[in-house]
Every structure is written in C-alpha cells, then in structure tokens.
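User: Structure please.
Assistant: Input sequence and predicted structure:
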Amino acid sequence: MSDPYQISEGPEAPRPAPPATARGRAVRPLLWLALVISVAANVVSSAADINMFIGSGFGLIALTCATGLIVHHYRHRRR
C-alpha cells in the first residue's frame, strides 16, 4: 500500500513549454502597455490633485497588469 503522505522520490520530467500562439504573443506587450499608461495616469492624477478615487482606479489597474505580467512569466518560462 502506498503512503499518501510520501513525496515522490524521483525528479519529475520537465514539462515542455506551451506552444506560442498569436494570442499568447500579444498578451505580454499589451500588459506592458497598459501598465505604463496606468502608472503614468496615476502619477498625473496624483500630481494634479484630481479625485483620489480616479488615482486609486489607475493604481488598481497598474497592480492588475503587474500581477498579470508575473503570472504570464511563471506560466511561460523555460526550465
């Protein structure tokens, strides 16, 4: 009977990288573009003393884009 709490003994075979599709290649540049625009808009809205909810919205968009870039990097990296 196998032990359900035992960690596998051998190293796992590396997974092959997922095939690059047209959509997959366009995600990273779009995320970078949205990140740069949202950070710039956040800086401008903060410096111009515009409503803080607008600046917070741009900050939230920037945080989402940064998170998306990190997730995209870890899902598509080569080992």
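Residues 23-76 form one domain.
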